[in-house]
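During the reporting period the student researcher (J.K.) took over the structure-prediction task from the postdoctoral fellow and processed the backlog of single-chain submissions. One of the processed entries is reproduced below for the supervisory committee.
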Amino acid sequence: MKKLLMIPAAMLLGTAAAAPKISAQSIIVNPAQPDLSVSVRVDKDTTGNANPTYRVGENIRISTSVNRDAYVYLFNVDANGNVDQILPNQLGGESNFVKANTVRIFPAPGDNFTFTVGNDTGLNKVLALASLTPLNLDQLSSFKTQQDQFATVNARGQQQLAQALSIVVNPLPQNSWVSDTAFFTVVGQTPVQTGSLFVGTNVANATVILNGQRLGGANVTFSNIRPGTYPVRVQAPGYRDYTTTLTIRAGSTTNLNVEFSQVVVTTPAPAPVQNQFTIALRSPVNGARVFVDGQEVGTIRNGGLNVTVSRGSHEILLLAPGYRTFSNVYDVQRSGQITITPTR
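J.K. obtained the following structure tokens:
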């Protein structure tokens, strides 16, 4: 990708009467009127008479045409005097030979590169120089390596470029070359318009979250928000979150007032039971009633009953018809199993 910022105004060059001339509206002008003609245009001005505007970073296309088969050389000089050679270049072996009455566009549709307007704002020019024979630009520009797509230009500014080109074309017959210049102006990018958001609440320590991003505390105006529609969440300790969707508009402040009223009632989790153990009572006497510390806790079924007791000593008693009452005290320190076999 080549960044373009093109050619400023008039130059001075002291030469003989037959030498190329410099004018306020061009860079280099043939003193004669050859039957060869060339035109150069930028894509926002097909007439060549206007001065269209391009923004920094915007793509630009440059076109040229000749009335006779010719070699066309394209240069641009930006508002700060930086010179770029657009054609010839080494982008896919791009040739600068242009057939008569055809239009060449750079970059052409389908090319895998673009010309992008650079950062230097102001009046720019792009120069087309057409010649019936190839020109030797070795003293003006060169490709430093085979990998360079564009040539490095030694001249800086409009005057140096004009002087260098005058030397190149001066030995040529005046009817064998001609030039043309196009203008355009580079301006800065339009700044992104933003909006603001004010969130007011009736409680302290509220937090504002916009589109999943925490903005900060409430009762504050947040600025530099891109226009758009966003989800909003406002949180406050002890209250249910407030959620909504709102639209931020450029150049204005969106107001959101949140009245918290519904308190979140939280039930404390029950304290974990400490030192509780499960004792599996095993007995062959189904139907026997089981008492722990004088409280009946259940009946033996299918040879067993599980009871829960705390750490320490507990009296366990079994009553069953036809059997002697069983009673014993156990010191419980962990969960386990107790087998009880009453006697008749």
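The committee noted the following: The helical segments are 157-169.
J.K. will present the remaining backlog at the next meeting.
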